Amino acid sequence: MTATGTVALKALSVVPEGEDEVLVGDPATGTFVTIPAVGGVVIAALQRGASVEEAAAEAEEFAGEPVNVPSFVETLGELGFLADPSDEAAAPDPVRTAPIQARRWMTSVRPEIVRPFFGRVAWTCYAACLLFSLGVFAVRPNLIPVPATDAFPFADIGLSALAWLPFVWFAAASHEVGHWLGARALGIQTRFGVDRRMIMLVFETDLTQLWTLPRRVRYGPLLAGLAVDSVLLAALLTGRLLIDLGLWRAPEPVGSLLAAWVFIKVMQMLWQCLVFLRTDLYAVLVNALGCRNLWRVKSLMLKRAFGRLSAEEAAELADASEADLRTGRWFRWVWLAGGAGGAAWFCLLLLPVFAEVLRWAAEGLAEGPLTVGFWYRLLCAGLLLGPETLALILAVKEHVGRLATRRS
User: Fold this and answer.
1) Which sign does the torsion angle of CA 49, 53, 56, 57 carry?
2) CA 57, CA 61: separation in Å to the nearest integer?
């Protein structure tokens, strides 16, 4: 690189972050960093084809003092932001953000097709669906799900568990599809993955490319999953309400299934309220408060509070953004107390279900492997508890990986 030469950059996005900084990233890999605003001036100049000398002149005019552009370009190279002509034919894989994840971004839906589903009228309808559901629960408290009874629509526990599974998968998939379509409405790409939160297996949509957009427009994709949930819950509750009012004489199994599915949907929506587990509302919180790496800052501040912060971590914390530090002062305690909230969610909603399934399965397993009941109950229990088992395996794998890193 020479002062009179040009620098080839990748198709970087540059988004203002306040008055003094910009968010720069490579949408193809999902790598984003925050740099001073003068860095954005340099990148804009280089993207126009300006030489290093010309970019330095523009940066000096903006900053009021000389700027070391060659050093800055070297930093861009270390971040992987410089274009490599030898790699033009091969599209780079995005940075992995979940243990199980698609390798490529999805672009199969055109933005103009789904954009009407995320306009003002659509969001008004989604909000109305949520308010309707809350109103039904307030007026008809007997329709509020009760895990011990509503979770099992049939007398056969195994059949009830099998009736759960299609709706659980459908509800989870529709939630993530909502995120995907919300992102496509803004023209950005996503990909699906599987991760865990504590001992719970979760599906997730990688919305990393939201960082290429201004903060004010990121809320749609972040809340799109809950919007789909609100519509589905309202539809299910409408059926239950009609039965409760005597306006629909549905067969008893239909009413029982609706009650079970309402329980599942309410449980999933309450899960998204647990902000200390990096749920959808956590992402909304981070975006609203202008945070960049709140999860990491929270961990470092807790380590400091308990006297376990290393010198390297102290330096990392000192370089954190003001928004992260300001939020981390109270969010660390929310996270610490969140264990009790997560335990309450599990004990009140899932533990009664799991306990009943395990009790029922134990009775069948006691009959021995030569009976049909043994294998039937083993199959039903495995299907229902399988996701949590996979989450535990992922947790053990992560723990082993951390131990190996510390030893090395």
Assistant:
1) negative
2) 6
Q: What is the mean pLDDT of the chain?
A: 87
Q: Is the dihedral of CA 36, 41, 44, 49 positive or negative?
A: negative
Query: At 384, is the secondary structure helix, strand, or coil?
Result: helix
Contacts of range 219-223, beta carbons closer than 8 Å, 24 or more positions apart: 219/284, 219/287, 220/118, 220/123, 220/182, 220/185, 220/186, 221/179, 221/182, 221/183, 221/185, 221/186, 221/188, 221/190, 222/179, 222/182, 222/280, 222/283, 222/284, 222/287, 223/182, 223/280, 223/284
What are the tens digits of pLDDT across the range 108-135? 788 999 999 999 999 999 999 999 999 9
Q: Report the C-alpha gap between 274 and 339 in whole angstroms.
A: 10
Question: The tokens 């309410």 sit on which residue?
Answer: 266
In the chain, the N- to C-terminal Cα span, in Å, equals 37
Is it the case that residue 85 has pLDDT exceeding 70?
no
Q: At what angle do helices 372-407 and 157-185 cross, to 10 degrees?
A: 50
**Amino acid (one-letter) located at 289:** L
Residue ranges in 346-371 assigned as alpha helix (H): 351-365
Structure-token match 């587990």, residue found: 277
Does the pLDDT at position 405 exceed 90? no
Quote the CA–CA distance of 81 and 218 in Å, as a whole number: 24
- Computed on alpha carbons and rounded to an integer, the radius of gyration of the chain in Å comes to 26
Q: How far, in Å, CA of 255 to CA of 5, rounded? A: 73
CB neighbour class for 388 (10 Å; exposed up to 12, middle 13-18, buried from 19) = middle
Q: Which long-range contacts (CB under 8 A, 24 or more apart) does 286-290 make?
A: 287/215, 287/218, 287/219, 287/222, 289/323, 289/326, 289/327, 290/17, 290/18, 290/215, 290/321, 290/323
Give the pTM.
0.84
Dig out the tokens for 356 from the structure.
Answer: 């009943």
The 10 Å CB-count burial string (b at 16+, else e) for 234-250 is bebbbbbbebeeeeeee
Tens digit of each residue's pLDDT (9 = 90 or more) over 154-165: 888 888 878 888
Q: Which residue has the higher pLDDT, 354 or 50?
A: 50
